[in-house]
Amino acid sequence: MPHSLAATPLPITPSHRPDPTSSVQLLRSLARSRRSHLAHRALILFRSLHSSPSPPTPHFSLPAALSAASFLAALPEGRQLHALAVKLNLAPAHTVVANSLLHLYASCGLPDAALALFRHIPAKSLVSWNTAIDALVSNGDHIGALELFREMQRDAGLAPDAYTVQSVIGACAGAGALSLGVYAHALLLRELGGHGDGEAVSRDTLINNSLVDLYGKCGAAELARQVFDRMPQRDITSWNVMILTLANHGCVRESVELFDRMTRVENVLPNAITFVAVLSACNHGGMVEEGRRYFEMMVSEYGIRPRIEHYGCMVDILARAGFIQEALDVVSGMNCRPDAIIWRSLLDACCKQNAGSELSEAMAKMALDVPDDAVSGVYVLLSRVYASAQRWNDVGMVRRLMSEEGLKKEPGFSSIEMDGLVHQFVAGDTSHPLSEEIYMKLDEIEERLASSGYKPDLSEARMVAGMDHTKGAALRLHSERLAISFGLLMARAGAPIRILKNLRVCKDCHTISKLISELYGVEIIVGDQIRFHHFKDGVCSCKDYW
């Protein structure tokens, strides 16, 4: 149904004109219904009321109308309401109205507009801070949310409540900020812990699910498992999050065992997300037979219709294990159109399995024919196919195509938390205050690696690097190496170095991370675009299957 304040107003006859108080109550009820057609009626009612001779007090009615617009993500109507609030001197002066506008812009995916408005609220309440922090979290700016939380604690003199902490937990999970996440967990125990024993928190399934997710995404699977094991009640989300966390950390046997316990011992009915989690475990562990069995179980025993995510897992399981033809058979039997991720997965497998240029080119063509934002990734994979076949002219052709189409490889960055602050690095970064010390440490690492017999793998160096020495220099400046160098400089003795990376870790960085863990006697945990790698004593939890 279209969302327009210009819609026909509700009929209000003189003999049945509601009083302003009951009108606002009706408006609030419609806005809080969480149903699209009723939220739309709330906007129509608001227009009708404010066109009447005796409109309700706007600072009561405007928040309700803004709530309806937020639920509908109706930005044009929201902007009209904002203009009315400004005209009536209620925005940003009236805190409740301003808070409602913050929520509107967050719901419409405009965190910058929400933050700009927030900065002009003269009397910010705790709700103002909570809404602004949540606006950043819900729109992916996790580091910005954590900075705003620190600002609230430092400058506003406001104690966070449970709502604040829930948002901060989400931000910590997104940013990989483990120590701040532990602090947020402690705040929850203090705020909701009843008599200080944390019993109220331990009974809250939603909070515990958030904590399991937090610790899993921050590279601390053991803490996630502790929270999960201590939960007195678990819902399907609890099991799904824990099964997927174990899978993503390479604990594939524990992941499938937990699935079996859930279905056979606890008699919990799995859903579609559960099977994405257990198929992910099979994928990360190279467990082809188990993957086939769980896929069949999903369809035949539980009657779950496969989604694109299930097909994607199954295709990846088969293709990475060398069963490319069987993977193609799965694609041909799909009940939906394959997306670019599936074709890129097949292309990646062709590259790793040396399946030949002809098949790789066919996979690349299929990937490029599907609308997707990650077109550059297809070109990069295809260039590696050509490079492995020594077809350098074709590598150059791919580079020219990318240049002509204005495509650039997605920039990689790595983040590491230290003492509650998240530090981000990009390739060749020199912006960090300790940049000089970081590069000196990197030189030391390079010397120790060379002494151990390490030779760089240049196959995944930047496409623009032509000569081997240039490629080696490009690899040396990868963002995760700078993060590891910083971690070795700053981490306490015996503490693991935890790093999050937005792209998949390259083969050479995977190799040197194993070597560094052995040479320096440190555990390095790297979460990349696909999974977590735990490097310790010269080996990786992925067993080099990734």
Q: What labels would you give this structure?
A:
546 residues; 5% strand; globular
Topology:
Layout: H1 20-31, H2 36-50, H3 58-72, H4 75-87, H5 95-107, H6 111-119, H7 126-138, H8 142-156, H9 162-175, H10 178-192, H11 199-203, H12 205-217, H13 221-229, H14 236-248, H15 252-265, H16 272-285, H17 288-300, H18 308-320, H19 324-332, H20 340-352, H21 357-369, H22 375-388, H23 392-404, E1 413-418, E2 421-426, H24 435-451, H25 468-476, H26 479-490, E3 497-501, H27 507-519, E4 524-527, E5 532-536, E6 539-540
Parallel strand pairs: 3-4
Antiparallel strand pairs: 1-2, 1-3, 4-5, 5-6
Helix pairs in contact: 1-2, 1-3, 2-3, 3-4, 3-5, 4-5, 5-6, 5-7, 6-7, 7-8, 7-9, 8-9, 9-10, 9-12, 12-13, 12-14, 13-14, 14-15, 14-16, 15-16, 16-17, 16-18, 17-18, 18-19, 18-20, 19-20, 20-21, 20-22, 21-22, 22-23, 24-26
The main sheet comes to: 6 strands, mixed
Overall SS class = mainly alpha
Trace the largest sheet across and list its strands: 2-1-3-4-5-6
Strand content: 5-15%
Rg (CA only): 27 Å
What is the overall shape? Answer: globular
What's the total number of strands? 6
Task: Please count the helical segments.
Answer: 27
Spans with pLDDT under 50 lasting ≥5 residues?
A: 1-16, 463-470
Give the proportion of residues in helices: 55-70%
Terminal-residue CA separation: 46 Å
Mean pLDDT across all amino acids = 88
